[in-house]
Specification:
By secondary structure, the protein is an alpha/beta fold. It has 8 helices and 10 strands. Strands 6-7-8-3-9-10 form a 6-stranded mixed β-sheet. The protein has a 4-stranded antiparallel β-sheet with strand order 2-1-4-5.
Length: 240
């Protein structure tokens, strides 16, 4: 492993998010974490512990009350809304419990949308990249179908394809298997494992599923907005 591989892709330093009000609500408190390329991380904890709030802060979907989020060593605190949106589009892919695919578009068109927003490739290159992503996820034959024509597992893999559209080094997933049966949930986790292991992406997923969480190579557990555990999981990639 090179020094570049070991340099953090994503970091937090003293990250805190407090909702103001008569009775302020602390969503995340004093979280300091570092994630390297190829990490496959499960964020776990009871409901209301701050898991999704932390994920939204990591993904620049929310701003911290205090502390820092660094992407590739770059402090994001001083970025304006447009700069944050551009950085998010180029470096972070999101997968949620519900796929949020646009129903009026085909699978191929859904994957092309973030590429066109970023504007880094010409049309032919975008289409070639889309075809390669769909092929890698076993969705080549579904490229011209609309979301309602897909199974639940296929829709979630299509959502992963869209998240990979701009070749982001970071993939964030919020309960990505929560709407799937056991078999399809395991397939989705296998996809994440391969993306981390083979493509060196940093994959961070919030999950309530203890068994699936144990298949990652690192667990971060939150309780009452704080990190109470940060450890390697029992299972490692070669078991997948």
């Amino acid at each position: 492993m090179t020094g570049a591989d070991m340099a953090p892709v994503l970091e937090t330093r003293g990250l805190t998010r407090i909702l103001p009000g008569k009775v302020p609500v602390t969503l995340v408190r004093d979280v300091t974490l570092s994630f390297e390329a190829g990490a496959f991380v499960a964020i776990t904890g009871p409901s209301g512990s701050g898991k999704s709030s932390l994920l939204y802060l990591l993904g620049l979907l929310d701003r911290p009350t205090a502390g820092q989020v660094l992407i590739g060593g770059r402090d994001t605190a001083a970025l304006d809304a447009e700069e944050r949106a551009r950085l998010r589009l180029a470096t972070i892919g999101f997968v949620f419990q519900f796929h949020f695919l646009l129903p009026e578009f085909t699978v191929r068109e859904n994957v092309l949308i973030p590429m066109r927003r970023l504007g880094a490739l010409d049309e032919r290159a975008m289409r070639d990249r889309t075809a390669a992503i769909l092929e890698s996820l076993g969705l080549a034959d579904e490229a011209d179908r609309r979301p309602e024509q897909l199974s639940g597992g296929q829709r979630q893999r299509a959502a992963i394809a869209r998240a990979l559209a701009n070749d982001p080094p970071i993939l964030l997933a919020d309960e990505p298997t929560g709407n799937l049966d056991t078999r399809n949930g395991a397939i989705v986790f296998d996809v994440f494992a391969r993306l981390a292991r083979d493509q060196r992406r940093t994959v961070i997923t919030v999950t309530h599923d203890v068994d699936l969480g144990a298949r990652t190579n690192r667990r971060v557990r939150l309780v009452d907005a704080r990190v109470v555990e940060d450890s390697a999981a029992a299972a490692v990639f070669q078991t997948l």
